[in-house]
Each structure stands twice: as structure tokens, then as C-alpha cells.
Amino acid sequence: MQSPKFKRLTWLLAAVGIAGCSGDDSAPVSTVTPACTDCGALAPTLYAGRGTGVWAYTNASDQPVTVPVAIGTLPGNDVTLVFSNDSGQPLSQPQSEPVSPTAAQPSPASAQVPQMAMNRVAVAYAGVSTADRIRAFNTRGFIERLERLKARKGAPPMAADTLDGGSRLPSVIDSQPGAERPWYTDDGEPRDTSLRRQTTTRDGVVVNVWLEDSAYGPGQVTDAMLDAIATIYARRDGIHDFLVDIGGPMWGPHTESDLIAPDRQPVNIVLLRLAEEGTAGYFLAANAFVNEPGTETSTSNEAVAVFLNTATLSGDRPDGMRTTIQTLVHESLHMQNFYRRPVRLGADYALADWLDEGSAVMVQDYATHILGDGYNEVRDYRLPQYLTTPMYGCSVTVWPKAGDACDGYGVWGAWGGFLNRQLGMPFFRKLLNDSTHTASEQVLDAAIRAVRPESGMVPELRRWAASVGALVPAAAVPGGYGYPARTDADYPLPAIDLQTQVATRKLPAELQGKLAPYAMAPVVRRQVKGTYRESVTVPPRTTLSVVIHDGKV
């Protein structure tokens, strides 16, 4: 689910041990080892003087470890220390060590953090945001409802089973252009709509575009907009073809009698005036239930459907159509994930919210080839959002709730964009089509190992942390680091040079509290000449990466 909102996120940065110094002629001793090949890390204590070098130390114990770091022949480079939490538990941040009397103090990082667009639903419903409520239903509520319906079969009706409101709706199957039909919003409000466009995909799936009657016309949603949406979704190599190619059908065979029929279901794109203008769209699994008036399914739309906000298209928004198409791709993947895993494979296979949302953010990265206008969601929005807010310290396996300092869309844009470029479409196909694992961490780890057998979620997290924490230059970037271009057949991805983010990247000014599970945090030492020397406290189950390059940080 997507919606922009503004939020301020401010961190303050603490010293981590003894600052780097120059002019020290004593023999360097270091416990970090090179973590790249054919790179600037020539030895545990030696930098090549140019290029990018990465050194690492992993504390696999349950106690903090003080690690001496000494790397020589620096001509005045910035040194970045990156801490990545390798575990699923929050960990205490690194503590300060006594400062050497001969050491130069590290330059203070900027604490000025601008407001940054956040992508979450702002409307609260009974104390919970619309986005959080829908996300909770899609990941847990659907399964709980299905279990309740199964338990009640054959039991006499109870007063508690009867709910007010809702009624059977005209079937979307065999609907014809011009047909009129109410659609329930996520909070059960019916809206009058008309079927404005109908087309068929290459594999024979009917695509219906419904529009709320009051949102049609000049200055609102026009015929040209409706044509564009129908065309880009259903055309050859459009959104539908792309998603089916990489992840299978949107709906099909299943064994659940409480859900809509498995065959002849059209894909419905429903454009409504949603209550909150910031809500770009949503997919709600509740619409897959058979509508039984007077029960908890009485506001099911009985349809395979995604919902888009007409406010995104109305007015003078120059990016309105692009945002709508990106949202359509994102929400369609939610719809596909829902059918492919909990419906087809079973309730135990439902993705955790962080991977369901994360995969939908990742697929937007690939939508560049569909839009055809050169825009890339990760390069042009999500990665800058992550670095500028900043979102260091945010977990990749916890999806934030509305009002939290972290924003999952920015985190997964940065992290997922890295995985896409490092591992490509073979990895993403494996991620989507896994039918072996039920735990989402295992799904992600297995997809990575399918492409890099020697790797996994944690090793890739370390390399991503080093890349994005130190803004490694694209020029001569070591293998396994950075955001290189992908040239996979049909689904290319543009390279991203992290040096383009130097001017706007904000560093946290203090590492406070605990480092979240599977999260990272960087600390920078400025303009070190000669030997960089520091004793660094590495928390339990944490990897320290030391990154030196000849770009800017």
C-alpha cells in the first residue's frame, strides 16, 4: 500500500572508540580482514591508496568485543565504520572508548535533517491507520477469517454472527462496458461506479476498469487517462504480462469454498475517491470472500481487484499518471502474492508483512521498462529518501507502522534495489515462486542462495550496509558491492552511483538506544592521513565493516 506523508527523523551521532590519526609510525595491528577481492584492501593493515577497500570483522559471540583497527597508507581519505546487526534481536549500540591524546577528533556529522516524503496512509481508523489495518488483514486477518468461517460451517446461526449492512453485488464476471455497480471501500462504504473500459490480455484474462461516477470528467479522471491505464495494464508486455511472466497468475485454482470461484475471474482496476488523498491505492484480501449478507463477509466485493485513488490523477499533478501506474504495479503484486501463497499453497505460506511489502517495492524497480520514460523508482526516489531522511538503523525485517520514525518503502527501496542489482531477475523469480519455505526470512535467504550459494540474507545485508553506509563510488566498485546495472534479458535495471547522493545524504548524529534487528548504522572519520588507528567496540552478533575509498562521504 502506498501513500506519501511528511515526517521528521532525527538521530544524534556518538563517537565509537579512538579516532583515526596520522603521523603514527608504529607498526599497525589490525583484526579486520579484507572483505573484497581485486580492490583497495590489499591486506588487513594496508590500503592501496586508491579505489575502494572493504575490511570486516564479525563478532559471532554473545559479548561485545573490542577490535583494534589499523590500516595504513591513507592519503587523506574519509573512513566509514558500518555496524550491521546480523541477528533478529535488537542490540545495544557501540559504546565510546577513551580517545587517544594524539588523535584528531572526528568531524561532527550534520544534525540538520529535512522533512522527507513518507509513503504510508495517514488516516486513522479506530486508532489504527488505514494502511496498517489493511496490511494486518492481508497478512493475518484473512487467515483468521477463513478459520472462523470453516469453524462455523454446520453450526446453528448465532446472534453474534449477524452484522448490519452489506448486500450481494452484481457479479463482475461477464460485466459489459457501461455496466453500473457499487464497490465497497476498505471501510465498507459503497460507491457507485461504471465500467468505463474493458480489454483482454494476451493470455485471455479480462481487465475491467471501473470509475466512481462522481470522479469522471474534465479536471478529474478523463477518457485519455482511462485509455492509458487499460492499455498499459493489458497490452503485450504490459503490467499483466510482466507480472504473470515472473510470478504466475493473479487468480486461479484453489480449494477454499468460502472464496470466489477459481475460474473466469477478471482483473478489476477500481478508481475511487479514497478518504485520504495521500493514499495512492490498496489491495484488500477481504474482497476474495464470497459475499454473504448479514455476516462478516457482507462487504466483500467478490472480485480480484486493486483500488486506485482518483485524487492522484485529478488536478494538475505532473506525476499523477506515473504514480498511478507505479501504484498499480505495486498493488498488483500484493494481489499476486496473496493468491500464490496463502490461497494456493495454504495459510502457513502467507508472507510476513515486511516481505509482502518489500517485494512489491522491489517490483516497482523493474517497472522502468513498462513506463518507458527513464524514471526509476529506486534511483530517483526511494534511495534518496533513505539517505536523506535518513533511515539508518531501520530493520529490513520489521515493517513500520504509521507514525514510526522508519519508513518501510524507503528502507526496502534501498535494500531491495541493492538485491535486484546484485542478483537480478533470477533471484526475484525465485523469491516470488518459492513453494518450499513458510518463514519469510527463509524465503529471502533461499532466493539469494539460489543465485549465490555461498551467500545468504546476512552476508548480503553486510555488503549492502557497507555500500550504502559509505556511499561507495560506482567507478571500479568491488564485486558484491554497490548498485551496478543489470542487463538481464527483457528486465534491465540502471546503475546507481551512490556518489550522486553525497550532497544530500544525512548522517545520524548519535547512535542512540538499540540497533534494530537486521539493521545497520554508519560512523564517519574525516580526512585521515597515514595510518587510521582505532579500537572499536563491536556489539554481539554484529559485523563491523571498515570502508575506505577515494570518493566523498
UniProtKB/TrEMBL annotation:
Keywords, comma-separated and alphabetical: Signal
Biased composition (Polar residues): 83-97
Cleaved signal peptide residues: 1-27
Pfam families attached to this UniProt entry: Peptidase_M30
Region of interest called Disordered, as start-end residue ranges on this chain: 83-111, 151-199
Composition-biased stretches (Low complexity): 98-111
Domain of life: Bacteria
Descriptive protein name: Hemagglutinin
Upper taxonomic lineage: Bacteria, Pseudomonadati, Pseudomonadota, Betaproteobacteria, Burkholderiales
